[in-house]
Design the sequence.
């Protein structure tokens, strides 16, 4: 093996070039995932609720996201109380069309001033519906 000549100031070594060649594919791969997720369109959750009677509300959640056919998505109901937003019901799920409907007992949600739906969408992150005031449900 021949001894290496001293490098000129600012010149790249073979080791630096080889290291850069190995690192480049990793950077390209990690940048591709967010770009693919963004091409699906921004996910949107919508919560609607109205009173069925003095004790129950009817709540619907819809998920829309342009570019995807299966809109199955787990989400949580949250209530805005004295200490901020907290989870009321966990692990609810929209169907493949992006729709969910259920009764919401006033005995559970009545302790909050507002309700919202929150989901963590793969490739996008957390998404929240606009809050619905309980005063609008039981006016």
Sequence:
């Amino acid at each position: 093996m021949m001894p290496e000549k001293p490098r000129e100031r600012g010149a790249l070594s073979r080791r630096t070039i080889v290291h850069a060649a190995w690192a480049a594919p990793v950077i390209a791969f990690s940048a591709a995932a967010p770009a693919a997720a963004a091409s699906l369109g921004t996910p949107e959750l919508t919560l609607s609720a109205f009173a069925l009677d003095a004790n129950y509300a009817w709540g619907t959640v819809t998920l829309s996201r342009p570019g995807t056919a299966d809109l199955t998505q787990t989400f949580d109901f949250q209530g805005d109380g004295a200490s901020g937003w907290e989870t009321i019901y966990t692990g609810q799920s929209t169907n493949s069309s992006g729709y969910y409907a259920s009764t919401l007992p006033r005995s559970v949600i009545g302790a909050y001033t507002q309700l919202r739906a929150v989901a963590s969408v793969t490739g996008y992150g957390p998404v929240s519906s606009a809050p619905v005031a309980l005063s609008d449900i039981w006016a």
Notes: Confidence is low (pLDDT under 50) at residues 17-37.
